[in-house]
């Protein structure tokens, strides 16, 4: 395990990095934020990734979501301006849930293949085209599971299914597109400039 991929475990052990904590999980800042607000919710239990989750973890999933709501409230932000979800495949060791504002304005957005989180409201599950959402979220190469979808898969299948290499390759072929409108930039610099315009 590389120092980078195990970084979350080290942060989890450092109470000074915890913004909010419960008996089951903690909230920390993402060290490489992809938006003005980008937080991670980590369970204290030793769960490497979403692929080790089972139906027995559903109550833990609810706890993670409640902490996500809590950090948004603490920061005095609007839940409607945030997205919550998990990457598939995960980029780091230790299960973590992303809580990220929809602006995606950040110096850490540098390449088309950077992973961006996609979510649906846990309490308002919706049926949508996953590939369409991937295109609308900066053409990311890491598919992001909807929080509601994770819970649904655990209830029905008892586990989360990894994406195949073919599925991931298909996602990376899609063009960039703004997540807030229909604009399709030629490259990341143009997309970043455009995203800033939505803040005005």
Q: What is the C-level CATH assignment? A: Alpha Beta
CATH fourth-tier homologous superfamily: HIT-like
For the record, the count of structural domains works out to 1
Number of strands: 6
Poorly predicted parts: 112-143
> Could you name the CATH topology?
HIT family, subunit A
pLDDT averaged over residues: 75
Total count of helical runs of at least 4 residues:
6
- Strand percentage lies at 5-15%
CA(first)-CA(last) distance: 42 Å
Plain-language structure description:
The radius of gyration is 16 Å and the shape is globular. The protein is built from six helices and six strands, in the order H-E-E-E-H-E-E-H-E-H-H-H. The termini are far apart. It has one domain: HIT family, subunit A. It is an alpha+beta fold. Keywords: DNA-binding, Metal-binding, Nucleus, Zinc.
Topology overview:
Layout: H1 7-12, E1 20-21, E2 25-29, E3 38-43, H2 58-74, E4 82-88, E5 97-101, H3 130-136, E6 143-146, H4 147-157, H5 165-172, H6 188-197
Antiparallel strand pairs: 1-2, 2-3, 3-5, 4-5, 4-6
Keywords: DNA-binding, Metal-binding, Nucleus, Zinc
GO cellular component, one term: nucleus
Pfam families: DcpS_C, zf-C2HE
Summarize the structure.
InterPro entries: HIT-like, HIT-like_sf, Znf-C2HE. It is built from 6 helices and 6 strands, in the order αβββαββαβααα.
Short key terms for the protein model shown above:
6-stranded antiparallel beta sheet; alpha+beta; globular; single chain; 30% helix; mismatched DNA binding; 6 strands; HIT family, subunit A; HIT domain-containing protein; 200 residues
């Amino acid at each position: 395990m590389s120092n980078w991929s195990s970084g979350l475990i080290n942060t989890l052990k450092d109470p000074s990095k915890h913004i909010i904590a419960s008996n089951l999980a903690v909230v920390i800042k993402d060290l490489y934020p992809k938006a003005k607000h980008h937080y991670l919710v980590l369970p204290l239990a030793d769960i490497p990734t979403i692929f080790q989750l089972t139906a027995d973890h559903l109550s833990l999933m609810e706890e993670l979501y409640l902490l996500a709501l809590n950090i948004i409230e603490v920061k005095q932000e609007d839940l409607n301006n945030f997205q919550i979800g998990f990457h598939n495949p995960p980029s780091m060791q230790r299960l973590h849930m992303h809580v990220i504002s929809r602006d995606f304005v950040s110096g850490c957005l540098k390449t088309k293949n950077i992973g961006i989180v996609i979510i649906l409201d846990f309490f308002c599950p919706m049926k949508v085209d996953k590939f369409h959402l991937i295109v609308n979220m900066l053409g990311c190469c890491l598919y992001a599971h909807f929080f509601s979808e994770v819970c649904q898969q655990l209830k029905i299948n008892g586990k989360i299914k990894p994406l195949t290499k073919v599925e991931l390759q298909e996602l990376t072929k899609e063009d960039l597109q703004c997540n807030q409108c229909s604009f399709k930039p030629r490259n990341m610099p143009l997309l970043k400039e455009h995203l800033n315009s939505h803040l005005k």
